[in-house]
Structures are given as structure tokens and as C-alpha cells.
Write a structure and sequence with these properties.
homotetramer, 336 residues, alpha/beta, TIM Barrel, 2 domains, eight-stranded parallel β-barrel, four-stranded antiparallel sheet, 34% helix
């Protein structure tokens, strides 16, 4: 059970609650938040009668928790959340949003060329990494702020808003200054300090599923962002780690309808990281749309064989153009 | 390296090969088959010059193996295999084949009612289990031969050919007497004695992927059937076991285009076992078709809440009818 | 709920039970066994009052099932089961039993040499494969009956009883004629027809855990053997399949104390298949004993570099001799 | 290939290297570090002749990389690293180090009581969480700086140095002010910004394996810390995520000898998080020591049933005392 206090509840009121809980035979654990304090009730088995505490001064709400998330759940918020990114609406149940671009920003020429090409093919947003999480320290780590500037340039040049990854709480401000949407990578899905920081900004967040995160943990990670006050979260499945090594990851498309049942947040799919193989990207992209995805994130590179990262899974510019024609046809079909 | 002997090669010819291999500095391992003997060459690192052995009497073929399969590979057989089942053609790149029916045959009434209903909704084949592999021995194990008779009755009554599971080498003959296609369940994918027996019959085989089988192992299992002389194998993905417990299994749809690259055999999808949840079946069924599946296997039950097995994942009759209308539309689009 | 009938219960008595169950508002599913019929009660939510059925003629016992196993559970049978193999006692809580030998029998010389050597080093039993389950059909499949004869010869010569794998129901009789203990391999853990056949013989069974089998499924597989009347089952952990590829499998040693809590059956460990790497076998063997294993199964080959299968994980004869000295010391310590 | 520059190499020297690499037909990616720049060479297939670049001014070293780590590898540094923590030596091949304490610091009384008790039983270090990564935001998140102060108090009181978790780059300084060793939790194993920050401090680091991290990724994560200049890293296995749900995680003990082959860093085991079940902790703790672990991390709580986190896996004070007696005996045996 969770007792949520009013945001102006004082120390005394909180202490009174704790005493009341202890008198009921349970333990009380205050959980200070940036806006308000909540008090967790521990040691209960099964349902707790909340009549006593509900009546005490300073109590805003008493929540009977069973799942580690609440704000993201459809029970709590039955209507679909629509996330707005620079004029685009994601999750509105209309045309899916296509984000495309290179894994990493490598040069002005590369990002400008890619942005213009994907725009011409019909992409809605530009993607590209400036801060790159890499398995080992001896590989290209991204162009960092310089990369943000190039993304910004390419965005203005092409007219496409852009999304890029943020890797630590202290760079949230910097990235938010440039990007239209901030991405949390799979490896940081449970970097809770980062999630909390992202909960405090106004920009929308694209949260990628950790490679061995359960759906419950994925939704609970999103809950961290919503709990701090930022409702604009998009969930992105990018493949999970399994015993199968023939593909880079195993794309778990069933999470699209599953998350739609459990949550009101939009769901996107990244078939590039999920499969790790260029030829598998188009069929999985189209399957994702049919399964109900609100958008796709696709890696596109003008010269994949020279890419500093993720070349084998990047679509070429003509490959992307071809896929977009198929996606257009698919979307017309879905829209019926 | 594998030296395949003529089917009438004698003991002396085989011994001469073994001696030749040993003189080359390798070990020779005779692998007797039901029709012919093959001789494995062991202890080599890298490619072996096969000129010496190729010239010896009785040698049919010398195969340089690197994968555990060859007959099923597209390298070896570039054209799609079309499996024919009682007039239907699976893998022909035309309309996908829909197989529907209950997890288990439970009674004459149940199977007749289901067969008529799925036929009316547009199914191409009937499915139903007479021999049921169950985790523990204290649950319903299937109606066995009585179930085969009821399936046969329902098949004649509805005009739908039927597929049913076979669980051991000694019942292959019995099941083949009744069924139009024999199914190997996920738990038996590496029951090699069963696979060999199925290689000796003329009926087509539906081979389900083991719940933790890699694609390489899946193809190698099919190789056992082809190696014994039965070319009619359909591969069926039914979800793999991962850490995620929110769905019964994790449906690995990327194997559709992946297997199409590696092999010439048809690929089907079973979204019922893959998800374990009725509401997830229709979106995954449609996604599978878009990804290129040659067919679907769907659990349908007139009263899922009373099913002796797999009720929660079975479609109701109206649910199946509704899905078939969407599938029809989807197929027209794909053929488009 | 499961209603177990007397072995001489007739058709009429069974029909009376079914009617009674249906009158209670549930479904009844007869489960015919080789000795007696059981009737599963379906459609109940929670506990069912069994007073009515318990009183009917022909009813032997009414079992309230929640787990898919009962006979193997410690609740049902609190005392450790001791499995006797040719004079050896496994699971008696005394000196662990060491089984050693090659993955596959390859020749008379190889198996005789190995048997004598492992006997001299202190092994209690000989192991070796005559029927080999191999991923693909183009690799060495074992010497089959010829292998059984060589194992028998080596057993008589060395005085060591032997265990060997059986792969199909129709060879159970043949293998049981030669072997002192029959092994079910990981790939056949859920080959239920094979398990049922093994339940009808008098020889002890070594059941290996499937590579993606949960502990619940593992115990339920053993239940199949016990349910048919054979109480002599030893459970053997041999590594499970995970995302980690640095070892062949992931050895799950925590199952030793876990199974000891849940079941009364002896537990063995096979560190050779679990790790796939010779250098990791000795530390894992010793760790298994400290964790409470009743025995070890170790691959030993006189010339691992020439082995037809599993060479890289086989101990050499001197390597085994060295490990046995450490194991002796370890056992003295444990018995301490 | 990686070209490591002298720490005083200037911009001009770096540009000369880049030009040279490009003239060789490859791409050059500068990787700025806190102390020196390295230049990655990309686009090569196989070995690159490094004669040209090796001769250029400012080049310190040319490394031919195949693994994503080098500094942590035993090839590079054959002798065991000994990590010193407040007088203790970890990895010296002598008596393993036992760290014990509660999952989370909850109160002064709790931590003082626990510290005194584990000290009395023979523990070498105190553990306890002040910053707690929790799946969802509505559960106890730790006492943060207040918790650090209490740990410090308990450390001084008991004479035990302490280790505690750090969750974000910006709190590294704060935690390092108090703790004798800083812990990176499993969820942050690939929080690369945190790892880089920890590479810049002088205190030893306990790096926990991510729950789905391969050994290669685990070592590469440690490489981030060493690459920034901190050689004092201890690797800690705490169970990986698999399909098995009977235990909280699957303890992968084979990594102890495996990591000892690949790396010179000390290895510890956390059997509490690995199993999630009190009764399984002692057998796994002892098995870990026999397998060669340099230390153990154990959760101990004076009243596990009231713990704010991880109660079911915490040892009681008498349970810990009993285990320490067995460990003492085990260590005497190992030291032999």
C-alpha cells in the first residue's frame, strides 16, 4: 500500500502517518519525491484496511499497489496518450511515425545527406547518435556535443525534428537543448537516476526496452519518468536477448498488443537493432505496423559498409526509399 | 567431410575407403543409414582434398560439410519446395494455408462442430490432437486412436484434410493411416528416432521448432527427415522460451524471412502456442502473414472455457470467423 | 483433482464416477494408465469437496493436485530415495558415486582402455554412448547394439557397472538387456512415450534435465516414470541453455539444494556437458559435491583430440586421475 | 587496430596520424580519453601492417584489437591483480574476503546491530545500500546520504571497511567520500558514463555482472574503468536471467574459473541475489569458494521478515554465524 501525501504536507503530518501505520502492525517507509512524499506500507499480507490513514491530515490518496507501476497503466488512465513532438502526434491511432537516420552521426556530410534523403522518401523524424554506448572503450564513442550540433543543422536543413540518445543525468540539459525528443537506450532502461532526471524536463522521451527487461520492468521504468511529472513517454521494443544467435536479438512483436492492453503509452518498434540484419528489416517493419505499432525507428546510412557502427543492419538510401513505398501502401491498407 | 556410398556398396568397398582416409591422416567414422552408408571424415582442420577418395569404387558423392544440414539448405536446392497435402499446395507463394481446430480432440460433438465451423469460416485444414504431450502424467493425455477416428470422421464430414501430432516411432504407422499430415511437436523436435521414422513415410510432416532450438538445430532436425527420403517438410515456429513470462512463449517472427534465406522449405506460424493469450493471436497472425508465412496454425474451440487443454489461447468460433475476414482482406492486400 | 481407480475397477464403476463428477458441475477426463485408470476433474476453481466421489465403489484414492507431480515430491515421500545399481547405493547420503567414460563408444580398444583406467583411478561406474543423439544426421550416430556389446565387455572386464543412453521406446528392451542403468538424454526429457516405457522396467533410470526445462518440468518428467511403477530415478543436471555462449551451457548448481527440498530423488551433476570445456570441469565437479550432489558424470577419453564427439570437454586419463585424488580429499572433508 | 597517443600528443600529431591512416585506405576515428587520445582504425579486414603509423611522432603504442577489452585480459597482464581495500587484500590467492550486511540501510539501530554481529562472526567487510535501484518508483529508494553516514558510523564502530552502491556519475564524489569500496549494480554494468567516472577515482570498485551480460561484455565494462586509470576492479557474479523462475536468477559459477583464465582481476560471488532464497545461500556460498572465488558478498539482516527489500534472501544473524563456521572449515580445507 502506498500513501501519497499532499505536496505541502509537512514533517509532522508525515510522522503522524508513520505512527498510525506502525500502530496497525506494519512498517512505514517514507519515499521522498521531488514534488511530494509517499509512504510505503510494508509487512502486510494481502489487503490492508485503509480507513484510518485515509482520514488523517495531509493524505492525498491511498493506492493499493500490486504492480510496480500505476501511472502508466491503462486501468488508471484508459485513454491512449498522444505524445506530441514538434507538431507530430504519436499514438493518436493515425498514421504511424517513421524515424530514420544513421546509428551514429559521423560527419556533417553524412548526416545532411541522410536527412535530406530520408525526408525525400517520406520519413517524419531524423534519428542519429551523438553519445554512443559501446560495449568496449576502444571503439568510436560518438561525436558528443559536436554531433548534437550537426543533428540540429540537419534537422533545420531537412525540416525533420530529431531524436537522439542521452546517457547520463548530467547531460540531460545539454541534449534537451538541441533535441526534439530524448532517447534512453536499452542499456540505460534501468538507469533510474537518468529516468528521474528525464521526468523533470518537458521534452518527450523515447524509452527503449532493456535487452533482458520483462514487460513489467519496462512499464515500471516508464513509471519513473511519469512519476516525476513528464507524461510524454513512448515505449520502444528493440529485441530481447535470447539463446538464438542467428539474429542480433529476438524481436518480440507480441508486446505491441500486450502493452496496448496494459498501458496507454504509444509503442514503437526498432527492427534494425532487433534483427541486426538488413534483409530482415523490411519484413519486420511491415509486420510491426500490422501488429499495431505507433511508429518505427529505422537505421539508414548512405554507405553502410563504411559506417562506424551497426553497418550490417542499416538500410541503404535506395533500400529505405523502397521500404517507404511499401509502408505507404501498408498504411493505406491498415487505415482501411 | 562426408563420403556418401552407393546404396549397393559392399563391406569391402567401405573398408577400402576407411583405409584411404586413415592413410590421409584422418579418422573415418562409418555412419550406416537405412539405405546407404556414409563415412564421416574426422580430425581434419579446414578443407580436405577429396581427389583420392572420390575416385574409389562405391563412392557416390563427397560432401564438404560445415553446417549440420545440407538437403534443407537453399544453396543446395534454390527453388522453393511446395508441399502438397490432399490437393492443397503449401509454400507455393500463393494464398497462405490456414489450419484450425482444437488443441485436443475431446468428443465427437466437439470436433464435428469445430470442423464444420472452421470450414464455414474459410479454413483450409483441420488440426486437433489425439496424442497429447503433457508436462505431467496426471492430466488428460489425449483420446489416442479413438481421437484419430474422430478426426477422420470430422475430416470426411467437413471436407477438410487434417494434421495431428505423432509422439513415438511405433505409432507413426497408425497415425499415418488416418492423418493427411503428421505433426512433430516442439518437445520432440530432437527425438531423432521419431524423425528418422517419419523420413521413411510418404506423408508430409509439420515440424515444430523446439522451445529452445536454434534455427540451425531446427533445420538440422528437418534434415533428418529429408535424409531418410521424405522431402515434404513444413517448418513451424511456435514461440521460443525466454525470460519473459508475460506471454507463454516469445514469438520469433524474424525466422520467417531468415529461414526463407537459408532453406527452401515452407514456413508456418502458430500464434496460439506462441502467445498463450487469445487477444494476442489475431495481431500476431496478421503480422506473420505480412512477414511472409506460408500458413498459420490456429487453435479454435467451441467452448474454450471448458477445453481440456489450452483454453486461454483458443479462439472462439466467432473470434475465428472474425479473424478469417481480416485475413482474407490481408491476403488480398499481400497478393495485391 | 485426480480420482485414482482400483486396478480392477470396471467400465461401469468408471462411468459412475464420471456421472458423479458431472453432477457436481465439473468435467471428467478419464486417463487410462497401463495398470489402472485415473479420472481428472476439470473446470473447478479451487478446492473440490471430494466426499461424494471418495465413497463410490472402485475409487482407490483422491488426489488434490496443484503441481504437475506428486510421487516425486518430498511432501508425499519425506525420506530420501536410495537408488541401487548393481550393489552401489546412490542417494544414501554417503560417498558420492562417480561415473566416468567416453561420450561415445568408438572401438573395443578405446572402451576397454578407458574402463580399466577410470576403474584404477577410483570410478564407481562406466558411462558411454552407444545410441547417440546428434544435431544433424551426417555425423557419427553411435555404434548402436555393437556399442552395447562393447560396453558390456568393458564392464565385465573392469568390474564397473555401466550406464548408457536409450533414445526410443522400442529399444528400451534391448538397452535394458545390457545396461545396469538407462539414461534419458536432455533432448528426450519430454519424450513422454519413452518415459512411460522406462516406467515399466525394473532397471534404474538416469534422467537428464532438458536444456530449457524448468525444475517443475524436470520433476514432472520423472513423475511419468514413477507413475508407471519404476521408483528408481536419478535426476541429472547438465547445464541449461542461456544467452551466454562462452560456455557450452550454463551449469545451474543451485538446483542441487533446491531439488533436495522439493523431491526425495537423488541428484547428479554432469559438469562435462554443462561447461563444454575441459579446464572448467574439475572446479565445477568439486563445487557440485560441496553443494550436495549425490554423484558426478564425467566424460573421459584416452585421446580427446581424436574423439568422434565431445572431445574438447573430455578429461584425459591423467586429468581424470588427478581430479579423482582431489575428489577423494573433498569427500573426506565433506564426510568430515 | 587502436593507435594510442602519448598523453602530451598535440592536435597536429593526431591529425598526421589520421591522414596516414586514410592514405592506407582506412578510416580513422579519434577516441578522446581523459588522459590521452586513442585513434581507432576502421574498415580493415584482418591484420593491418602498422609500420607506417608506429613510426610517427606522438604514438605511444599500436594495439591490434580483437576482443573489446585488453587491459583486463590476462594476455596483457599475466599476474593476478590484488585489490587492496583498507588493509584487506582481495585476489591475493589467500583467504577469501567475506562481505556481509543488509540489502539496504534502514536505521542506525539496524546497521549498527548487523555490523557488530557480522564482525563477531568473522566478516571482513560490511555491505549495505544507501542508494537503491528499485524496479518501480513507489518502493523504498534508500536513505541516500543519510545512509552513507550510518554506514560510516557502523564501519567505525565495528572496525569493518564498507562497500556501497553508487548509481550515477554525479554522486561518485559523494559516495567515494564515505565508502572504502564503491559498487556498480547489475543494472548499471553498462552505464558507461558512470564507469568512466569511476575510472577517475582512486578507490576500488566492485563491478556486478549485468543480468544478461555475457562474460565478454562484463570484461569490457571493467575495461572502461581501467582505461580511465583505475586498476582496482573486482568482478562480482550475482546470477543471470534465464527462463528458470524457481530461483531469482541462475548462478553461473563456471565464470569463476573462466574469468580466471581470461582476466587477472579478482572474482567474487553474491549467492544472495543469485538464488533469492535463504536456504540456497549456504550451499552456493561454499560451492563458490571451492570453485575459486576470491570472496563472497552475503545479505544478512537482523530481522529479514521486516526488511524493506530482499528479506527472503537475507541470512539471519545466527544463520550467518553458522555459515561462517562452515566457511572457516572450508577455507582451511582449500588452503590444505
Amino acid at each position: 500500500m502506498l500513501i501519497v501525501m499532499n505536496h505541502n504536507a509537512g514533517k509532522k503530518q508525515i510522522e503522524a502517518i508513520i505512527k498510525a501505520v506502525e500502530l496497525m502492525g506494519y512498517s512505514a517507509a517514507p519515499i521522498p519525491g521531488s514534488e511530494r512524499t509517499a509512504i510505503g506500507v510494508l509487512g502486510n499480507k494481502g489487503y490492508v484496511d485503509d480507513a484510518t490513514v485515509r482520514a488523517l491530515p495531509g493524505v492525498k490518496e491511498v493506492i493499493h499497489v500490486s504492480k510496480p507501476y500505476k501511472l502508466v497503466s491503462r486501468d488508471f488512465h484508459p485513454k491512449n496518450t498522444i505524445v506530441k513532438v514538434a507538431g507530430l502526434e504519436i499514438g493518436a491511432g493515425k498514421r504511424p511515425v517513421i524515424m530514420a537516420g544513421p546509428c551514429a552521426v559521423e560527419s556533417e556530410e553524412q548526416i545532411l545527406k541522410t536527412a535530406r534523403a530520408v525526408k525525400a522518401s517520406g520519413a517524419d523524424m531524423l534519428r542519429g547518435g551523438a553519445f554512443k554506448p559501446r560495449t568496449g572503450p576502444h571503439t568510436f564513442q560518438g561525436m558528443r556535443e559536436e554531433g548534437l550540433k550537426l543533428l540540429s543543422l540537419a534537422s533545420r536543413d531537412s525540416g525533420l525534428p530529431f531524436v537522439t540518445e542521452v546517457m547520463s543525468p548530467d547531460t540531460v540539459g545539454l541534449v534537451a537543448e538541441y533535441a526534439d525528443m530524448l532517447q534512453v537506450g536499452a542499456r540505460n532502461m534501468q538507469n533510474f537516476e537518468l529516468l528521474k532526471e528525464l521526468g523533470k524536463i518537458k521534452k518527450p522521451i523515447l524509452l527503449k526496452r532493456g535487452m533482458c527487461a520483462s514487460i513489467e520492468e519496462f512499464l515500471a521504468a516508464a513509471e519513473y519518468i511519469l512519476a516525476e511529472g513528464n507524461p510524454g513517454v513512448i515505449l520502444c521494443e528493440r529485441g530481447i536477448r535470447t539463446f538464438e544467435t542467428a539474429t542480433r536479438n529476438t524481436l518480440d512483436l507480441a508486446v505491441i498488443p500486450l502493452i496496448k492492453e496494459l498501458s496507454h503509452l504509444p509503442v514503437m518498434i526498432d527492427p534494425s537493432h532487433a534483427t541486426g540484419k538488413r534483409s530482415l528489416v523490411p519484413p519486420m517493419a511491415k509486420a510491426a505496423l500490422v501488429a499495431g505499432a505507433d511508429g518505427l525507428m529505422l537505421e539508414v546510412h548512405p554507405e553502410p559498409e563504411k559506417a562506424l557502427s551497426d553497418g550490417p543492419q542499416s538500410l541503404t538510401l535506395p533500400g529505405f526509399e523502397k521500404l517507404m513505398r511499401e509502408i505507404d501502401r501498408m498504411i493505406s491498407f491498415i487505415e482501411g
